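Input for the complex:
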Amino acid sequence: MKSKVIFVLTLACLLFLFFPFSWILFDLIVKGLPVILSSGINFFTGIPPIPGDGIGGIGTVIEGSLFIVSIATLISIPISLLTSIYIVMNEGKKLSRISRFLVETVLEFPTIIVGISVFMIFAVGLGLGLNGLTGAIALGIIMIPYSTVQTVENLRQAKEQYLEVGYSLGLTDSRVVRLLISEGREGVTTGILIGLAKIFGETAPLLFTTVTSFNIYLRSINSPVSGIPVLIFNYAFSPYDNWHDVAWGASLVLALIVLLLFILTRVTTRRR
Amino acid sequence: MQKRILIATLIGVMAMISLVFSLVGSLVYSSIPSILALKSTLFLYYLPAIYGSLVVSIVAILLAMPLATGVAIFISEYLPRKIRSIFISINDLMASFPTIIYGYWGLYELGPFLNSTLFKALNTYLGFIPLFSTQPSTGSYLLASIVLSIMISPFASSLIREVYSKIPYIVDESVYALGLGRWEVIRIKLLYSRRAILGGMTLAFGRGLGETVAVDLTVGGAFSISSSLLSPGITIPALIANQFGSAFTQLEISSLFALALLLFIIGVSFTLIAKLLILRGER
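Predicted:
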């Protein structure tokens, strides 16, 4: 009897948690897909509509997201890769433990705080101003711990398998590190993909590090640039129905990007 | 290690560490002027945001705790191996889904639905309790808490599941051998994983405190304090998101930094408590 009760209770928990998510996916398709279809290819290349008139497209923010996220990735990869190699190769040493702990703690920093701190340090302090680069720095900082934690985990497995083999073959340190990375490359890729999935959906860090504009294509590093999540956020607070429709379409696009990255991480982890 | 590699990797580590310290440093540095000028009135003035942050996160955790634990139990006890991995994947996808989409859906789908059903009923039948004493509004503490709990439960659940599913099968066998049923098995395994549950909840609480856009969209944005969970309010991250861009005076910006610092200190202490005291050696 009691066993049945706990079955029903836990099943109810599962349904309660998974039902809202199914509802979200359902809404994304039912409300987002018609919007995208009605605008066609223009939805991925065009400029957002004026209030109350048509759908247009979100080409500018797709471009902006890709631009900011790419630079953020370029910023974060060297730091997280080097840090993970250090942590894995020097396990047991104090600095290795400290950095690992620090990385895991930074992962929990509220992202809006990273946003305003980057605003203070880079936009104001170093005079970078508000642009795609400053936004990318904020996202890059957020990405570092996500990739590092994952990469450390995966490199450690490669280390257990290959470190002694490498040394017993008389390989030099640099060769051993190279071996580690090439054997753990899928782990490294997984780390980067997980970081990418995280920063693609980030809104808060971009609010105060970029000049929010949805109507201008990129001209230079200093042009106003914004991301897909920021468009959804701003349009959510607007009173215009057509902007809400655009936001549903943009949400679907964003969800598909994150889903794609998520599936890729599954593929790279499974192959190990 | 060879010097070259050591130096190269050390540069990476130093870059990471200096980034972290400059982030925290700028937070402290920028909030000093307002703390010196306003002292305790600063936090008194911003009390609605501090109150809102605590209320929304606490209610979200109260909702998430049974949900996350129940899901962890169901996935590891009742699902066959093949289906289990599918549900784990969906769970992980939910945990990494963009929070802005949760917020947007919460504002335009879940909110109106709950307002005309659950929230309305709570107000009509339980309105004499101060917690439900106001008419449902577009955004509210409770709506934000519910959306937040949906977002943080998958994360907490996978933390709990990791520990729960690692309990050796011999525990199950021993309990069954005593002639007891599944109920007792689960009870004993829950006892084993109580640290993971507590740790997962503490970490999730820290995450909830820092969540910005999803809460901003659903909490209503009213700068006031209300005992009713059905009335609109504001949280610290939401206030920063709404005000930082339009802050004109140095003092205003500095005050928002002081709030961010407060949020940071609360959030990081919860993370540290979870990592150093509760989850130590669990994973």
